[in-house]
Write a structure and sequence with these properties.
The protein is α+β, with helices and mostly antiparallel strands and about 250 residues long. A hairpin with a 2-residue loop joins β14 and β15. It is elongated, with a radius of gyration of 39 Å. The C terminus is likely disordered.
Length: about 250
């Protein structure tokens, strides 16, 4: 008991000493600083994960957003891949007043800011209403659709892997680029892309030219081979029409 009381007195003395206070002060400051830093990091990570709202969606039937089931009134953040299944539709209203109406079997990815929308339509059918002041860059498998933002635009797009892309402009103008050709569509105009022609390798091209040359040579030989007989059969040295075989000279 005597030893225990002595130890208690010693600890109290150390706790009250100025050297102990000086030693604990930086440790406490470091601990508080680390706690505040961790709080800032956690808040920033959560804010980055959510991001700012870019709009909302209304759905009819099974629709997914980034692989998760969507509900009507759901808020959209950052990049969204919206997929409508059979007998389903989705209406997307962005905060910059751009509107997408997705039909069934449509796969659309959207990224939006205040003055620009970037989107990719890999399959399906949709309509888009683009107000003035907001530009658009929409890509399909074989076409690029650009709205400059100078005027409001309303258009419809249908794209499939086999049939290519069809664009119908209800209110323009809208710039279309496909197969290296750029064109501006106005209201009432429609354009449909086609699958690119197959690229022949050099051996196939050489064989094709040889085949064409052989065919031309055979044709010329047949014409030249018949000409002397026709001239010999012509009475009085007259002219013969190669197509009809009858004389066309007077």
């Amino acid at each position: 008991m005597k030893k225990f009381s002595v130890l208690q007195k010693t600890l109290r003395a150390l706790a009250c000493s100025s050297s102990m206070v000086k030693l604990m002060k930086p440790i406490l400051v470091f601990a508080v600083t680390m706690a505040l830093l961790n709080s800032v990091i956690v808040y920033a990570s959560a804010d980055k994960g959510l991001g700012r709202s870019i709009g909302s969606i209304s759905v009819t039937g099974p629709v997914t957003i980034n692989g998760e089931p969507a509900t009507s009134g759901q808020t959209l953040f950052s990049i969204n891949r919206i997929v409508t299944s059979l007998h389903s539709q989705a209406l997307v209203d962005l905060t910059n007043s751009v509107r997408f109406n997705l039909d069934e079997g449509t796969d659309l990815t959207i990224e939006s800011s205040n003055a620009h929308v970037s989107a990719g339509l890999s399959n399906g059918r949709m309509s888009c209403a683009l107000p003035g002041g907001v530009s658009l860059d929409l890509r399909t498998a074989d076409a690029s659709i650009v709205g400059s933002g100078n005027e409001s635009v309303i258009f419809n797009v249908t794209t499939t892997e086999c049939a290519g892309t069809t664009i119908l402009v209800e209110k323009g103008p809208l710039q279309i680029r496909a197969a290296g050709i750029r064109r501006t569509l106005m209201a009432g105009e429609t354009v449909t892309t086609t699958s690119p022609a197959p690229n022949f390798n050099p051996r196939k091209r050489i064989g094709l030219w040889i085949l064409i040359g052989t065919g031309v040579g055979v044709l010329l030989a047949a014409v030249i081979g018949r000409k002397p007989e026709q001239e010999a059969a012509a009475p009085g040295g007259g002219c013969i029409d190669l197509l009809s075989g009858e004389s066309n000279c007077r």
